[in-house]
Design goal:
CATH architecture of the largest domain: Orthogonal Bundle
Structural class: mainly alpha
Order of helices and strands: HHHEEHHHHHH
Number of domains: 2
Radius of gyration: 28 Å
CATH class of the largest domain: Mainly Alpha
Strand order of the largest sheet: 1-2
Strand content: under 5%
Shape: elongated
């Protein structure tokens, strides 16, 4: 055996094969080391930029307005009062609790809103009974819908590339939904303009494919019929907040 190995070594040396193989291996490891170093530098730069921007994924707290019937004020500041009123109307049907931003399907609450809770809870009623749902927050986003809409509309994503994360804190839930409802291409209509024309039923019908509890869908609930009236009350509050002339219920005509 030793003789065989010796002859192979001599053969290799004579043809300079061993040194060539060693050189290639050394070059490969050197390139890998350089690649790892560059990746480490990029990660450190990304972390530095995030920290410099002042963002901290700290979860959430209860520091937001509390009301009843799922119609409490939004945490988000500013925006279109007609869209804001619609958002409060959606939550009246989807998350009719005093603390809607942290609620998940079934009524439990989560503490960590640094990202979507992503808990799949068994569905106990309705046409989808037996399945499970990850619906969470004031607008009952399922995980896939949240990831898709947050990628498009989230105002402050954290991280980069495949490590990008989207905070599920109350102000960001509001911001994503407000931007989504304001996107004419997403719905095939100008929702704000429709609402200004009093076409609440038409808007609710268009949205019912996404939020099925709004009526016209497969999971109409006890709140569905009251939603147009709830919208009127929410609009009064939102218009008063921005100092606009209030639209009285007696003159506000809902159009089908």
């Amino acid at each position: 055996m030793r003789v065989v190995l010796f002859r192979l070594h001599v053969y290799c040396m004579e043809r300079n094969l061993c040194s060539l193989a060693h050189e290639r291996i050394a070059t490969y490891y050197l390139n890998m080391k350089r690649l790892i170093n560059w990746i480490s530098i990029l990660v450190l730069i990304a972390v530095f930029l995030e920290l410099r921007a002042g963002y901290r994924p700290t979860g959430w707290n209860f520091d937001f307005p509390i009301g009843g019937n799922g119609t409490q004020p939004l945490v988000m500041k500013g925006g279109d009062p007609y869209i804001r009123a619609l958002m409060r109307t959606i939550s009246a049907s989807e998350a009719n609790v005093s603390r809607p931003y942290s609620v998940i399907y079934g009524g439990d609450h989560v503490w960590d809103l640094s990202r979507h809770p992503d808990r799949c809870v068994p569905i106990i009623t309705g046409p989808n009974i037996g399945n499970c749902t990850t619906a969470a927050g004031r607008y009952q986003f399922i995980n896939t819908t949240w990831y898709d809409k947050a990628e498009r509309y989230h105002p402050q994503p954290w991280g980069f590339w495949v490590l990008r994360s989207y905070s599920f804190e109350p102000r960001y839930q509001d911001a994503v939904v407000h931007a989504w409802l304001s996107d004419k291409q997403a719905w095939g209509m100008d929702i704000s303009q429709q609402l200004r024309q009093g076409k609440v039923h038409r808007v609710l019908q268009r949205l019912s494919g996404t939020w099925t509890s709004l009526g016209y869908g497969i999971e109409t609930n006890s709140m569905s019929g009251a939603l147009p009236g709830i919208y009127q009350r929410m609009l009064q509050e939102e218009l008063q907040q921005v100092g606009q002339v209030s639209i009285q219920n007696s003159t506000f005509k809902l159009q089908n």
